[in-house]
Amino acid sequence: GENVEQHPSTLSVQEGDSAVIKCTYSDSASNYFPWYKQELGKRPQLIIDIRSNVGEKKDQRIAVTLNKTAKHFSLHITETQPEDSAVYFCAAGYNFNKFYFGSGTKLNVKP
Amino acid sequence: DSGVTQTPKHLITATGQRVTLRCSPRSGDLSVYWYQQSLDQGLQFLIQYYNGEERAKGNILERFSAQQFPDLHSELNLSSLELGDSALYFCASSTQAGAGETQYFGPGTRLLVL
To answer: Above 60 in pLDDT, residue B114?
Structure first.
């Protein structure tokens, strides 16, 4: 099965700085890599995803990069704001199989 | 609002009891997933249903079971409850069954076992 490792477990940055969260996965068949943001007590919400035929995807201040050879993908948040503070989860999976989530990164953006 | 609904929002029960959690997927979604999130823990996949049939199974205990009905809503049954079953239970839905489908999460049911 898939094994997804996520680092760091906590990340503290100053408002305006960039934040990078990294995930590695084990199953080379995985072809879908979403990122979820979960605020305290709320549901996970999809913020960006990438599929294996793409190396990078950007949506305003958020970007995700994928290196299939090395089996890792990363979330980049630029110009961080206090409202970016939350727990971020990566996940990996492929068709007709289940999803595996990383253990989460608690991001704290200090004003 | 993702369009996925879950009831109840909160549930308090005692050890040894049985509870049923309910999930209604987004309109048009055929696939439902159940996840468990314990305190300060990540999401643990439990089980997936697609158009009424079980599609994939994760780390679901034998005391837990689920089903998806013809109207596509799903129920997660938890029996012989233990203190460690206290957690937030999310369901999610997607259009099709593949892992490449975007999953939309419901607001969760918070279960407290005393």
So the answer is: yes
Q: Compute CA distances A19 → A48, B14, B31, whole Å.
A: 15, 43, 33
Span B74-113, pLDDT tens digits: 999 999 999 999 999 999 999 877 766 788 999 999 999 9
Tell which residue, B107, A57, B94, has the closest CA to residue A47.
A57
CB contacts under 8 A, A 39-68 vs B, are: 42-46, 49, 51
Q: Which residues pair with B13 in a beta bridge?
A: B113
Does A9 lie at the interface with B, CB-CB under 8 angstroms?
no
Answer whether B105 touches A (CB < 8 Å): yes
Q: Show residues of chain B in contact with A103, CB under 8 Å.
A: 41-42
Tokens 């468990």 locate to: B36
3-state secondary structure chain B: CCCCEEECCEEEECCCCCEEEEEECCCCCCEEEEEEECCCCCCEEEEEEECCEEEEECCCCCCEEEEECCCCCEEEEECCCCHHHCEEEEEEEECCCCCCCCCEECCCEEEEEC
Give the tens place of pLDDT for each residue, B51-70: 999 988 887 999 999 999 99
Q: What are phi and psi of A31, to 5 degrees?
A: -135, 10
Residue A83 DSSP SS3: helix
